[in-house]
Structures are given as C-alpha cells and as structure tokens.
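Appendix B, Record 12. Input sequence as logged:
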Amino acid sequence: MKICIFGAGAIGGLMGVQLARAGADVSFVARGPHLAAMREHGARLIMDGETFSAPVRCTSDPRELGVQDFVIVTLKAHSLPGVVDTMQPLLGKHTAIVTGVNGIPYWYFYRHGGKF
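Logged structural output:
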C-alpha cells in the first residue's frame, strides 16, 4: 500500500512514522529544513520519551513519487490553494484522499483585539 503524507509536519509526521512502522510504503512531501532533516536522518517520532525512526522517501516534488493508494493531506488550510494543483501526479483512478487540515491558521489571533 503506497501512502503519501502531503505536509509532513507534526500531525503528518506522527501519522507517517506510525504507518511506516506498521509496514506501509510511506512517502512525505515536505519543504525547507524539515525536508532536509528527514532526508538526512529519516523521519523520527518522539513519543513517551522513546524515539521511533522510519526510513521514508521525502521530496518537495510530488512528481517523483507517482500514483499513490492514499494521499493524506495534513497542511494548514491557508497552504492548500498554493499546492493543490501539484498533487495531481499522486492521484490515480482509485486513489483515496484523506484530509486532516487545520482550518485556523497559526496567525489568526495575532493582533485580533479580542479576548484571545
């Protein structure tokens, strides 16, 4: 089973490492320093003081991964419009898309002026 985690941050990283540990063929689409760290050290999950590692394919270019059985989207909502078209190479006739999108961006309450 080929599973792509599109947005390998906290939630995507947790899901991806656990799926890889369970035997799934997991790949990550990420960017920047996080991508570089996963390429160098593999994906790592620290849970209850224990570190779990998973050797997964990591890329910033979904075209390198091909069609997947599942694409799990774990981006922040405001990031989706800029990348949705780049997901096309991951999608086949039977690909399922699972979303775990956070609808409130990190900056929402910055200078909001309200209670929060």
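The first helix runs from residue 10 to 21.
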